[in-house]
Amino acid sequence: MLKAEQLSVSYGESVVLNDVNLQVPSGAIVSLIGRNGVGKTTLLKAIMGLLRPKKGKITLGGADITTYPPDRRARCGIGYVPQGREIFPYLTVYENLCVGLSERDDLVLEEVLDLFPMLKSLLTRMGGNLSGGQQQQLAIARALVRRPRILLLDEPTEGIQPSVVTDIKRVIKTINKKKNVSILLVEQYLDFALGVADYFYVMENGRIVLQGVTRDVELEKLKEHLAV
């Protein structure tokens, strides 16, 4: 489905990603784990086209999308929920959901709202007046209305209450199994990352240093790479 091959990204003279190889198979959930500042968000931004790689290649379904701008990648089926959510605070929940749609699709809106029942009663509320958990659900819902083939999620559990974390875990599994949406998840909460994913990658200093199937993970070995 999605592959990053020998991907390197720099900010000026500072190399942030160095020859990263990562893939998300069709229908899979993949967690990207690592300490703060190791390059996880940079990788998602490079996949979304918000950062231009210094070298390497990104493919989606076998097609080379390395030079595509972000809007074209979105049309190809990549959905992106950034860290910090970035919803529009002065638009209503409903208006946030409709942003980016070429035409209103009541059916897909209803399908997405069925995943997030809490949002149904908040459609006329301004995005900036939502709680952190509600904003996160709105950010994910906004990405889903475009019917993505793959969804990039950056720290979806950050700063939200446990009950909403449970809801987000449920939604991730539902859209993966029932909607066949592949997912690349960046997550600091280790239990969540391993509990929801089929495969994992660990990043350290801009490189992939460990990878495997989550059911076979050696926790002690994994935690060595996450210790501060």
Automatic annotation (TrEMBL):
UniProtKB keywords: Amino-acid transport, ATP-binding, Nucleotide-binding, Transport
Domain of life according to the entry: Bacteria
SMART domains for this protein: AAA (SM00382)
InterPro entries to which the protein is assigned, alphabetical: AAA+_ATPase (IPR003593), ABC_transporter-like_ATP-bd (IPR003439), ABC_transptr_urea_ATP-bd_UrtE (IPR017780), BCAA_Transport_ATP-bd_LivF (IPR052156), P-loop_NTPase (IPR027417)
Pfam family, one: ABC_tran
Protein family per UniProt: Belongs to the ABC transporter superfamily.
Keyword Ion transport annotated: no
GO molecular function terms attached to this record: ATP binding; ATP hydrolysis activity; branched-chain amino acid transmembrane transporter activity
Family matches, as CDD domains: ABC_TM1139_LivF_branched
PROSITE patterns per UniProt: ABC_TRANSPORTER_2
Species of provenance: Calderihabitans maritimus
ABC transporter domain ranges (all copies): 2-228
Protein name stated in the entry: Urea ABC transporter ATP-binding protein UrtE
